[in-house]
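User: tokens in, sequence out, please.
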């Protein structure tokens, strides 16, 4: 009886182990590869939910179905026009065939190493075939928006940074499927000059900005001279017009004064003469004035009558 109970208990434990280890639940957003003695068997499982496998003998490896990020290390790469630059690249990828992925790279570290080799070599190959201007300017760069109708920016962009990245993506995307990897896109995170080139580029930028500034100042000085010349001409016109008008007013005033004097003199010449003499006395005679005049002087006749 005891042996039967023990056997039944053993069978229950075995059944529990089989049930516990024979089923697994695949989470949403992941895929699974069942391995037996370390080797993948069957087709990858991509449907979320409960699934069955052989207990004890088989194991489950979970892999992402979602898009993953690859970040490369900045590399020093020469362009076609012999300019060395640092290029920092990033890419997005997903596991397209979990079985091939397991057989080719086994894990994410292996995938990172493979992508390092594939993408870095594609970057180096494409950048070596293109000039610096193609790397640093976007594909939709419009020379007419560069200022001065583009005359200070003579370089012509045939491809541009976006199309260069697209070519890198196409070249690398042809290789990755054999590793069970699908590239989604490749982008430049940053493009920078090496130190020796950076100083030359900055010097060129400074000299170019100085040349443009000198040109602007020259145009400004020309416009200033034109404005000042126009202002001076207008000032002379206003001044001469005002002077002419003042002379005309003074002439009319003198004529009116002369007419008034003439009218006053014609009405009473003796009184007019007396009034003018008094005005003269007031101007030249004060408390300290002494003068000697003859008795027949016109100036003396009013003294003689007093």
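Assistant: Sequence out:
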């Amino acid at each position: 009886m005891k042996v039967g109970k023990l056997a039944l208990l053993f069978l229950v434990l075995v059944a529990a182990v089989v049930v516990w280890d024979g089923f697994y639940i695949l989470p949403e957003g992941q895929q699974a590869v069942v391995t037996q003695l370390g080797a993948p068997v069957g087709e990858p499982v991509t449907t979320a939910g409960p699934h069955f496998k052989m207990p004890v003998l088989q194991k489950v490896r979970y892999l992402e179905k979602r898009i993953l990020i690859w970040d490369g290390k900045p590399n020093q790469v020469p362009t076609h026009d012999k300019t060395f630059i640092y290029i920092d690249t990033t890419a997005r990828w997903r596991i397209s065939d979990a079985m091939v992925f397991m057989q080719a790279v086994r894990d994410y570290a292996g995938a990172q190493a493979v992508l390092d080799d594939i993408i870095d070599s594609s970057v180096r190959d494409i950048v070596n075939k293109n000039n610096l201007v193609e790397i640093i300017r976007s594909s939709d760069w419009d020379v007419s928006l560069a200022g001065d109708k583009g005359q200070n920016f003579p370089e012509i962009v045939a491809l541009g940074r976006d199309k260069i990245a697209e070519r890198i993506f196409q070249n690398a995307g042809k290789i990755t499927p054999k590793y069970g990897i699908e590239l989604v896109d490749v982008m430049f995170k940053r493009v920078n000059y090496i130190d020796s080139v950076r100083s030359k580029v900055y010097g060129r930028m400074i000299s170019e900005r100085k040349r443009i500034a000198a040109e602007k100042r020259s145009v400004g000085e020309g416009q200033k001279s034109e404005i000042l010349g126009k202002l001076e001409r207008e000032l002379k016109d206003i001044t001469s017009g005002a002077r002419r008008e003042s002379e005309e007013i003074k002439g009319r005033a003198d004529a009116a004064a002369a007419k008034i004097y003439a009218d006053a003199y014609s009405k009473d010449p003796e009184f007019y003469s007396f009034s003018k003499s008094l005005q003269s006395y007031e101007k030249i005679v004060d408390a300290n004035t002494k003068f000697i005049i003859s008795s027949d002087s016109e100036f003396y006749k009013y003294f003689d009558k007093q």
